[in-house]
Recover the amino acids of this structure.
């Protein structure tokens, strides 16, 4: 049985996940040369190449992919164990690592996190906002936040934040004055629209519902972006019709910069959930956070 240095395995995981020696070195606070030395030692001990390195990129070999798939959960479990050992009495400590959608990071989590950290001064929190649906636990996160249509069936899900949300379809007063106000979702096929495309390349259709009738359309796109801020600025500037979470545009609707349209077609949907795998040894920071949000209901 080979005994491999934990530090070298951690170095490999950092390089493999970031696909960069420079970024991994910065994250770990060491030099890229030290990381290269660690990779050479590890590959020599295993007698197999784990990474393919060029001047422009770092990619995983098949052996590297297999090692990373097994190593990431193991490193996460070690971090969880160490967090547990750092507890003093009944006061939880350590770092809570969350992966959440952008809209949740912007409008739902901030006030919750402020209250939680004030109640638990020995816990720190790391929040990564992204709209891609990858295996967050393989990446070392304690929990993820998703909406119910994206939840895995084998996960434990706990409601987080508002239990009902809805999209609003809006446009600027100048745009509506020039182009007219749609009275039915299909009217949007004749309008310029501002669409959201995920980093995965997916650009979901717009969905409307009224009295059980569902209309899905793929309207023409004048602006396509993965940035909510760019979409909102474009709508305010009069470039087209935008559909987004009501919480994200409520201030602009309140001050008249954007006007809601098709309001009777904008049905509510379920709010987000924090989800995590069923584990006997839950990280203390995650347990504290779950207890906190349950108590706030």
């Amino acid at each position: 049985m080979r005994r491999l240095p934990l530090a070298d395995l951690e170095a490999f995981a950092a390089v493999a996940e970031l696909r960069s020696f420079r970024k991994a070195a910065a994250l770990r606070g060491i030099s890229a040369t030290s990381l290269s030395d660690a990779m050479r030692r590890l590959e020599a001990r295993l007698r197999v190449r784990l990474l393919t390195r060029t001047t422009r990129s770092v990619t995983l070999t098949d052996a590297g992919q297999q090692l990373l798939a097994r190593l990431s959960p193991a490193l996460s479990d070690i971090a969880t164990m160490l967090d547990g050992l750092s507890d003093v009495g009944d006061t939880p400590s350590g770092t809570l690592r969350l992966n959440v959608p952008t809209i949740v990071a912007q409008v739902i989590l901030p006030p919750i996190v402020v209250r939680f950290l004030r109640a638990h001064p020995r816990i720190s929190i790391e929040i990564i906002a992204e709209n891609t649906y990858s295996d967050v636990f393989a990446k070392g996160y304690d929990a993820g936040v998703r909406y119910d249509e994206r939840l895995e069936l084998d996960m434990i899900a706990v409601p987080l934040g508002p239990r009902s949300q809805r999209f609003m379809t809006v446009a600027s007063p100048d745009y509506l004055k020039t182009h007219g106000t749609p009275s039915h979702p299909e009217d949007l096929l004749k309008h310029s629209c501002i669409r959201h495309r995920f980093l995965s390349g997916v650009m979901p259709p717009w969905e409307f519902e009224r009295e059980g009738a569902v209309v899905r359309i793929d309207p023409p796109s004048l602006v396509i972006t993965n940035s909510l801020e760019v979409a909102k600025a474009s709508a305010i500037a009069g470039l087209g019709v935008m559909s987004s979470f009501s919480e994200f545009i409520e201030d602009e609707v309140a001050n008249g910069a954007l006007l809601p349209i098709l309001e009777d077609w904008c049905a509510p949907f379920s709010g987000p959930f924090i989800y995590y795998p069923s584990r006997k040894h839950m990280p203390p920071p995650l347990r504290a956070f779950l207890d906190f949000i349950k108590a706030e209901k």
About this structure: The mean pLDDT is 86.
